[in-house]
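Researcher: Here's a chain I'd like modeled. Treat it as a single chain, no partners, no ligands.
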Amino acid sequence: MSTKSPYELSEKTITTVKSTVPVLAEHGEAITTHFYKRMFADHPELKNIFNMTNQKAGRQPRALANAVYAAAQHIDDLSAILPTVNQIAEKHRSLQVKPEHYPIVGKYLLIAIKEVLGDAATDDIMQAWEEAYGAIAHAFIQVEEKKYEQAVAQDGGWSGYRNFKIAKKVKESAVITSFYLEPEDGKKITSYHPGQYITVQINMPHSEYTHLRQYSLSDAPGKGYYRISVKREEGGPERPDGVVSSYLHDQLEEGAVLPITAPAGDFYLNEENHEPLVLISGGVGLTPMMSMLNRMVHQNHDRDVYFVHAAHNQEVHAFKEEVADFVKESPSVQAKVVYSTPGAEDSAYDREGRIDLPWLKSVVPYDAEFYFCGPEGFMREVHSSLKEWGVPDEQIHYEFFGPELSLQ
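Model: Modeled as a single isolated chain. Structure tokens:
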């Protein structure tokens, strides 16, 4: 990443932007919330790109505030936030965010800074942020351009959205259903790394905008189809996140067509590592873990794999039989099940309650690569346990479903 010409920043600009870091820490989320409100009012067409559920829940403004804060901290060396840029760029490519969108975002971000901060946003500060945004946008566009090129250049790759039909629909639990997607044109599809996701475009009748959702791929690559496993949320005015999942579960049957973008994401299994592999999931967070587990089993990998899944009970426990078959098939795979509220008839589980550090220490090795995914609270607990155990950061890998937040 570089901020050199045409976006080389002066020392004055860098100093001014860095001086706003304390202000962003205090008012960042108010600024980004106001930014989205103003931008969507003037450009409602952008609702077709942004996840409006994350807007209503406040997750997107909070994530953007964190990103702006990090950019201000490191404006003199944007390479310091390259991992964050790469992660966001993966999502942008998957959502088809293009260079022409950046000037619009920049315009309304500056308006929001001025309107929220009022007189504190001096002319010098606004000028510095205008220049800084140009550098930041330029860095993102450069990274995303390469990702667009890579998506097309891959064997079986494509640009934009490509139509896939639902070849099979399988109920995995009381709340999770899998959709097996095959290309409508019958041509080859690109492979992916276990843990990556696809963006699905949903055009629901009577909806004012297109809905985009990113779903982890839950099967091993190389099978001629993509499998996503979707948890049904209860939709409604207070639970807007359930509108799309309910539509998929209730309205779309085998044969229906879904436009999707090529697989993306920077959270995926490092297959070059031969250390023991620990996969920890909560609820529907098991979907990327299933892809990783599938990959290990079907590659006949001799790497020791520990699969730990937490669910409320057997009724909502997806892929139970599939994982049990993997354990029988592969001597290197061990699986543990934790139920927080087991039913009277539930028996095939290893622990009642939650995953805590003492128990975790008893079932998985310390010297391992840890991957985990699940609800935010679950992830905080797992992350805290691993840090308390002293597991090095480079051995800890996780993904949020939705905008990136912080586990600290």
